[in-house]
Write a structure and sequence with these properties.
alpha/beta, elongated
């Protein structure tokens, strides 16, 4: 039951706090988050009313946003006074298969470490990726760990930062790529649209292959297309990042199990097993054996 004080607080916040209107806070949400709302509002107002630079040394402000399931959460964004070009250059994404709510999130310690209590490995990953932003010779990475712990989220924010450096990015989800491949009438008659995707993946400055291993092994997709793309990128020293729920040993077993449950003849299976070995070796070559295993809680359960 709301008290008169609660009603007065709700009315004041609805009247004076712009982001509460924009995000359409319910009365219950306002009460549950009232202290955080007032704290964020006061900081934003103080910064807006102060001439010159942001009042925070790191030029970051905590803000509310809604998750894909319409729950309220917070993240950190650069202050409007920040002078270093903070808006993601979306035109540099030749392919972008990730949540559009991540489009303008910045790659920062605050955003990455605040998403999970397992901060040590995030700090190590942040350190590695920050070095990539400071060099012209970007190195690839094989990033794996359990579902929902923030692998794609972290790499999306990293790619956002790369677009500001005028790097062209293909952030490709293997599920979407597999579905696009299946739309073609046959591997011999690939559509112009699919061939255009392949060309982009070959030539972009940075390629990210997300959810690798969730798909079943397919000779035409993995050998004729993906392997060819990876060879091309190795030849021209173009970095490739892989995101998976599986380590490379389990990835190999996943692909091999597809063959064992298929109608391949024995000779075909033996040949394909050699090709799977080749895929795993080429992934190693793409990332120069740089592999990071992540741990943590499934963040998506909280949404």
């Amino acid at each position: 039951m709301k008290t008169n004080i609660d009603k007065q607080l709700i009315d004041w916040i609805k009247t004076h706090v712009e982001f509460v209107k924009t995000l359409n806070f319910s009365d219950e949400e306002i009460i549950n988050h009232s202290l955080k709302i007032l704290s964020i509002h006061d900081e934003l107002q103080k910064c807006q009313n102060t001439l010159g630079k942001c009042i925070n040394d790191d030029e970051l402000h905590e803000v509310f946003y809604r998750t894909s399931k319409n729950r309220l959460s917070t993240t950190f964004v650069y202050c409007n006074k920040h002078q270093d070009g903070v808006i993601t250059n979306l035109s540099n994404y030749w392919i972008k298969d990730f949540n559009q709510q991540w489009n303008d999130l910045i790659f920062s310690k605050n955003n990455i470490l605040s998403t999970n209590e397992f901060g040590d490995w995030r700090a190590d990953l942040l350190k590695f990726l920050k070095k990539q932003l400071q060099t012209t010779n970007i190195s690839g990475l094989y990033l794996y760990g359990s579902y929902g712990i923030g692998k794609s989220y972290i790499m999306a924010l990293f790619c956002n930062e790369l677009t500001k450096l005028n790097k062209t990015i293909c952030f490709v989800n293997l599920i979407n790529l597999t579905n696009e491949f299946r739309k073609n009438r046959s591997p011999y008659e690939l559509t112009n649209e699919f061939l255009e995707l392949v060309e982009k993946m070959q030539n972009c400055d940075v390629l990210v292959l997300d959810e690798i291993g969730i798909e079943k092994f397919n000779y035409w997709l993995h050998i004729e297309i993906l392997l060819a793309i990876l060879y091309e990128r190795i030849q021209y020293n173009l970095p490739t990042f892989f995101i998976s729920n599986l380590d490379l040993k389990k990835l190999k077993l996943k692909y091999l199990s597809t063959m064992n449950n298929s109608s391949f003849k024995k000779a075909e299976k033996e040949s394909n097993e050699l090709l799977v070995d080749k895929i795993i070796q080429v992934i190693h070559d793409c990332v120069n054996r740089k592999i990071i295993n992540l741990s943590g809680k499934n963040l998506r359960i909280k949404e």
